[in-house]
Each structure stands twice: as structure tokens, then as C-alpha cells.
Amino acid sequence: MRQKMLLVAAAFFGALAFILMYQQIKSEKEKALRGSVVVSLLAAKADLIAGETLTREGLAQIQDRRFSGRGSTEVKSADLDRVLGKKLAFNVKRGSVLLWQDISGYDDNRQRGLTGVVPAGMRAISVAVDSTSSVTNQIRPNNHVDIIGTFKFPSMKDDKELDTITLTLLQDVTVLATGQELANALGSPVLLQRGSAPGPRGYNTLTLSLSPKEVEMVIFAAQKGRLDFSLRNFEDSSTVGELPSVNFKYLESHLKDFAKERESLGKEEK
User: How high is the pLDDT of residue 28?
Assistant: First the structure.
């Protein structure tokens, strides 16, 4: 009897610990979605190659959302006259936001290396990934991702079993580096011919740009479960306000809804 009571108590406290962790993650996630502002930035209208001269015709002004402190190295639309006539030090893909590091002659030692890439007010941390969690190593520096966590905890029904839950921790997170490859680093650029593209290179870490509070949450979550990263379109900076936490019961009861949503998305794409 005593042993059974101990098992019940262990299951109860295990479930309580998970609930507290879940509430903390949910609270931090909601805070992270606040405070974004619309900014006007310069982006490449077409693929630009290192050595090209920047012209008004080759640049577009775009509106995007950024959280406070993010994007300190991005070239604002107001700086258009400052960059016209300058030569590029690195390739810039069509649609990518122009960074000060991309421009030849940009010689601020504070911007060299990873510490110069981290936006003011943000922090850089590296998270271990594998081929699956990193979208088969297709995530590149300067991409934006969502972070999804999967955790296991003692079942409320049977302390011998474990329940699994998956939830989105953060959305629209900037990737500063993949392995040793920095976002627009000031090292030797890889020159590409027009129309060519770099092949995927292997790595086992992603370095992310996070607020101090997000750093704590992600480190904690990485210690307690598995993190996966979903890659976003480069033009997509939107966030979804209400995302469900998925477990087996939720999945089982919403499969038909998922099928209907998938069907409607397919019709919209056509």
C-alpha cells in the first residue's frame, strides 16, 4: 500500500511540475509576441552579386515588423542615399534585406564576428539540432524560424505511462548562424555565378537571436524535451496568436478538422 502511495505521489508531483513548466512557457511566449513595430527597410529586387554597384533600380523599399532591438544591422529605407553607388562585398539574394555588412568599405570593428551580428538588446545562444529538427540542414543564416517543443511527463491516469505534448514556443526567430557560418559574416565571401545556389552544408547547431527572457525559456525547454525548427518564407513575419498544444487526445479528436483545413488550403493554392 505504501509503495502504491509513493507511486501516486510521484506521478502527482511529476504532473504538477510539468503544468508549472507549461504555464511558464506559455506566459513567456505571450510576452514575446508583444512589442513588435513596423519598419521600412531596403531589400534586393533581384539577385545581387558581390562587386556590383548598388543602384536605386536594384533596391526595393519594404515594410516589415521587428521586435524592439532587432534589426540594428539592417539598412533602413531612410539610408538609401548613403548606400547608392556603394559596391557589395557579399551576394544578396532577391528579396533579402540589405545589411550594412553586405557593403564594401563597411569597417566598424564592433560589427566583426558574431558579437557584431547580434542586434542591440538581444542575445545569441546556440541550440543543438540534427538533420530532422533543422529541416535537413536547409535552414541558413538570416532565415527566420518557429521553435516547437515536445515534452514528456507522467500520465494523470497511469503513473507507469508517459504523456507527450507538443507546442510552439516562439515564432519568427532570427537565425544568426548555422554551425560556424555566420549571417553575412565579414569573412571571405563565397562568390557564386548568377543562377547558381549553394548546396546544403551539414551542421549540428543553430545560433538564434533571442531576448534575455527568451534565452532562459529556450535553454530550459531544451533541457526538458526536444526542440524542432520550422522554416518560414523570407517574406513572412506574421505570428499566429492562438496555437493549440497538441497531445494524443487532441490529435485524435481534431483529425477531421485538420483534414478539412488542409483541403481548403489546397483549394486556395489552386
Answer: 67
